[in-house]
Task: inverse folding
């Protein structure tokens, strides 16, 4: 990148599958507005195809848990200092940091020392645990852009400049995705029958999540199939992996399973019920009004820390936090056994009244996420930080 170029320069860190999608949408908006932007940092293959300069890949850096971070520490550290070196040389107009709090807060401190404004998009869940971080955020972040109304109240109460932009997933939710006739045609396209119930498996978008969830989810699917062989099972492959990546991790299967990779909402629309890892996936499943069971497993040390410190909220599933109700049954760590997960899914598959009640509860999710146009509002909130427009 030529530092004499008159293009605006922006450092972006989008190290999660969902974050990289939202960052890509911003790049598309800026291109449509005719802005000359040279964006660099951490992002996905899709962002790279949109002209983003990759210094670190979200597909490699999205790790959770102490042991996982230690295992990837060399890559994380080298990426961190590559970003700093590039930022010092290029002096970007501002840095846009999405989620990924431990990495991003350390980076924010260094960037502020370089005089680079910091905008944080997708808040760390400090309202759930480690609320003391608000003091650091107030010092390091020039503006916080949040997805949920209660987050704006939290930050404003603590004197942090904040805009509520709404949730960008709403813009991905096209009406035909919820149309029963379109869903039926989509199922036929993938060779799925409308006779037997379809169970979607979503083990997660990180390598560590596949490690901790995939084997359990496959064992659950096998038990469900043995109870009713008309049931169909589809493993939805996250955009951070290729189908080949996931296929290589599969054991020898003795029940029918189809791997599908595509646009996330389109995939989810195929299922009747979903067994999903916690995270943004629960919100996507909820927006598609698919009853779900939420699981999460991690290494024992990280789980112990999580149980100790995450005490400010009743739930860990994003969909349940938003609706303030356990709409998706949550099973964490040792509770997320094959037997427990199978039993909870059996209830959704066999109890029609329960199933319809869950669908009705999920119908309220969209109203809790603001209006359409979140990415456009993010772009508007960033306007004051551009040196060249």
Result:
């Amino acid at each position: 990148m030529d530092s004499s170029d008159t293009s605006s320069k922006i450092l972006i860190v989008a190290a999660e599958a969902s974050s990289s999608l939202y960052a890509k949408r911003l790049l598309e908006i800026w291109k449509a507005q005719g802005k000359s932007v040279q964006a660099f940092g951490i992002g996905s293959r899709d962002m790279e195809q949109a002209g983003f300069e990759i210094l670190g890949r979200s597909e490699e850096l999205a790790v959770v848990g102490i042991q996982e971070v230690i295992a990837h520490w060399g890559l994380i550290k080298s990426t961190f200092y590559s970003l700093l070196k590039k930022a010092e040389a290029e002096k970007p107009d501002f840095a846009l940091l999405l989620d990924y709090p431990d990495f991003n807060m350390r980076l924010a401190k260094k960037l502020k020392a370089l005089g680079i404004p910091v905008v944080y998009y997708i808040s760390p869940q400090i309202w759930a645990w480690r609320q003391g971080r608000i003091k650091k955020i107030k010092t390091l972040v020039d503006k916080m852009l949040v997805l949920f109304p209660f987050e704006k109240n939290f930050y404003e109460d603590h004197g942090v400049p904040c805009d509520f932009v709404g949730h960008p997933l709403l813009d991905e939710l096209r009406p035909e995705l919820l149309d029963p006739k379109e869903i039926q045609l989509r199922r036929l396209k993938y060779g799925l029958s409308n006779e037997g119930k379809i169970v979607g498996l979503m083990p997660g978008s990180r390598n560590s999540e596949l490690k901790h969830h995939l084997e359990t989810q496959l064992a659950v699917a096998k038990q469900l199939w043995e109870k009713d062989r008309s049931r169909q099972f589809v493993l939805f492959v996250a955009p951070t992996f290729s189908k080949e990546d996931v296929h290589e991790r599969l054991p020898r299967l003795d029940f029918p399973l189809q791997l599908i990779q595509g646009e996330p909402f389109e995939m989810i629309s195929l299922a009747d019920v979903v067994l999903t890892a916690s995270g943004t996936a629960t919100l996507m499943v909820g927006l598609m009004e698919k009853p779900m069971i939420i699981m999460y497993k991690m290494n024992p040390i990280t789980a112990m820390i999580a149980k100790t410190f995450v005490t400010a909220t009743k739930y860990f599933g994003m969909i349940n936090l938003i609706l303030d109700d356990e709409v998706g049954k949550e099973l964490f760590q040792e509770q997320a056994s094959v037997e427990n997960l199978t039993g909870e899914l059996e209830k959704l598959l066999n109890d029609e009244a329960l199933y319809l009640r869950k669908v009705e509860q999920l119908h309220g999710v969209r109203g809790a996420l603001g209006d359409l146009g979140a990415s456009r509002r993010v772009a508007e909130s960033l306007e004051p930080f551009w040196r060249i427009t």
